[in-house]
């Protein structure tokens, strides 16, 4: 297990849930697509890429109201997206000591 005890499969499920949440909000989806440099038609295929799901979670984690809304809608604790991000490629938390 990685990401504070979260498996990559569990992290990917949270990332897919976050992507679905974004897809339900037209304004935020537009901002996400612009930031990701992708098109709406590519989302389904890209959802299978752990690196892309990491970017989805980065986007959600950068917007506190979005993070809270997603977690509330998904019934997740507020730290779950952060733990999921840590379990996906590129999400390792550096140890500064």
Question: If you had to describe this structure to a student in words, what would you say it looks like?
Answer:
The protein contains 6 helices and no strands. It is an all-alpha fold and 97 residues long. 64% of the residues lie in helices and 0% in strands. It has helices spanning 8-23, 26-36, 43-46, 50-61, 64-74, 80-87. The protein has one domain (8-87). It is globular. Pfam families: DUF3572 (PF12096). It comes from Albimonas donghaensis. InterPro entries: DUF3572 (IPR021955). This is DUF3572 domain-containing protein.
Q: How many domains comprise the coordinates? A: 1
| Number of strand segments | 0
Q: Which class do the helix and strand fractions yield?
A: mainly alpha
Largest β sheet strand count, sense and barrel closure: none
What order do the helices and strands follow? HHHHHH
* Proportion in helices: 55-70%
Radius of gyration of CA atoms, rounded to a whole number: 13 Å
Count of DSSP-assigned helices: 6
In the predicted model, the low-confidence regions spanning at least 5 consecutive residues are none
Shape field: globular
Strand content: under 5%
Average pLDDT confidence is 90
Distance between the termini: 22 Å
Structural descriptors:
97 residues, mainly alpha, 6 helices
């Amino acid at each position: 297990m990685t990401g504070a005890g979260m498996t990559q499969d569990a992290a990917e499920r949270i990332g897919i849930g976050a992507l679905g949440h974004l897809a339900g909000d037209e304004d935020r989806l537009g901002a996400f697509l612009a930031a990701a440099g992708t098109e709406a038609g590519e989302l389904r295929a890209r959802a299978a890429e752990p690196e892309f799901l990491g970017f989805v979670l980065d986007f959600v984690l950068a917007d506190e109201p979005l993070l809270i809304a997603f977690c509330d809608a998904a019934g997740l604790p507020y730290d779950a997206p952060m733990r999921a991000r840590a379990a996906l490629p590129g999400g390792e938390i550096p140890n500064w000591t």
